[in-house]
Amino acid sequence: MLTRATSSLIKDLKKQKRENCSLLFLDNIKIIKDSINNGIKPIYILVEDEHLNQWNGLNVLKVDRKTIEQLSDSKTPQGVVCITEYPQYKVEKPIGNFLVIDKLQDPGNIGTLIRTATACGFEYVFLLDSVRISNPKLVRSSVGTIFQTKVIALKTTDFINVFKSWNLPLLKADMSGENIFDYDNNGITGLVIGNEGNGVSKEISQLCTKSISIPMMKNVESLNASISGAIIMYQIVKNELKK
What we know:
By secondary structure, this protein is an alpha/beta fold. It folds into 2 domains: 7-85, CATH 3.30.1330.30; 98-242, SPOUT methyltransferase, trefoil knot domain (Alpha/beta knot, 3-Layer(aba) Sandwich). It has helices at 7-19, 29-37, 65-71, 107-119, 136-141, 156-163, 202-205, 225-236, 238-242; strands at residues 23-26, 44-47, 60-62, 80-85, 98-102, 124-128, 150-154, 170-179, 190-193, 210-213. Strands 7-6-5-9-8-10 form a 6-stranded parallel β-sheet. Strands 1-4-2-3 form a 4-stranded mixed β-sheet. α5 links the parallel β6 (124-128) and β7 (150-154). α4 (107-119) packs parallel to α8. The model has no long low-confidence stretch (mean pLDDT 93).
């Protein structure tokens, strides 16, 4: 029989959810399993019913439905909440392709970009002054891939300082850039996707070696940030995917 969480612990967890931006409150069973399979260590797993416990040997506690609803961000919770902390990765020179997300504010777009970056084998995703990694919508829209790629949140100035020592090419997605379908990747490449309304910031643009764009017909001016990023990332790795 599972141990029931104490009222003081539940109270503390509710406070942590409001105030501690480094904690993840995962409420999707598949995402919880994916995170654990990728080495994430849960602090607590809360279940409203014992039959939902699929995690022997971990710190699983029983709580009531009301607590699950208060700690979950889903409209229809699955009855499980996993509290964990996203790992802190060391910022070092990438040895593979990497994605830079520059001041993007839509968590759904960021989660989708992370998912695509993972599918394309990108080693790092750098979040510059963007939505926090623990944002529930970001985690859900990444469909668990946030635990398979190194996602690092940084201040723009901190990224600039470290990037200057890497001597790596950096592409900027921009409507006035060169046709991405004419681009051939000959080594490690970084891609920058900018803010939904303002594009890539001036500070990051100064680091970029080339601007690239997606050709469009019928006078369409632009695509959604996550769609644009997906098209460009797949073009960057097209030769690798043929192998």
